[in-house]
Write a structure and sequence with these properties.
mainly alpha, two-stranded antiparallel sheet, 2 strands, about 60% helix, about 0% strand
Amino acid sequence: IWSKSPDWSGASPIVTVPERRPVPLSIPWGPEAVLRVTEGIARSDEASFLALHDAFAVPVRRYLLVLARGDEEAVLDAFQETFLRVVRYVRPMGDLETLWGWLRRLARTALVDLLRRGRRHGRTVPITTADGLQGPGDDGSEALLEALESVLRELEPADRELIHARYFDGLDLASIAKREGTTAKATESRL
């Protein structure tokens, strides 16, 4: 549903998404199939994930296209993140409507998170004064520290702890990986 915001003059159309959407009719899964697939994904069964992906890839992509107003790049990134979150957070579900609602929520939050990260990466920190020279006794470190603290506050707690352990506590990747229960390579990728 497209609507103009009454509070902003000349605002561009915004998308309002009702919480309940009809289940895509092209997915003829009964409660048993939904339960079998979601339980399988929770057990890291690749065939179950592929079944879910094959069934829901088009509806999730279409949903994201509407939310992203056709921005293909944002859709691709949010789509990938959506299915990563499926693997990470899936719980057994017993009906198609619940599964579709959960997938929509994952897609919507993945897109919102992506857009927030985009705004965050657009920030710069001026280290010099307007004339290009540093002020007396000002090496720019205070502004840089404030920006760093601001960005760290916006991270997920697990990511913030990982960065703190590596760069502030000086732990090596192997030590962090052991503490997190992962490999050094996986820890490096998260950084």
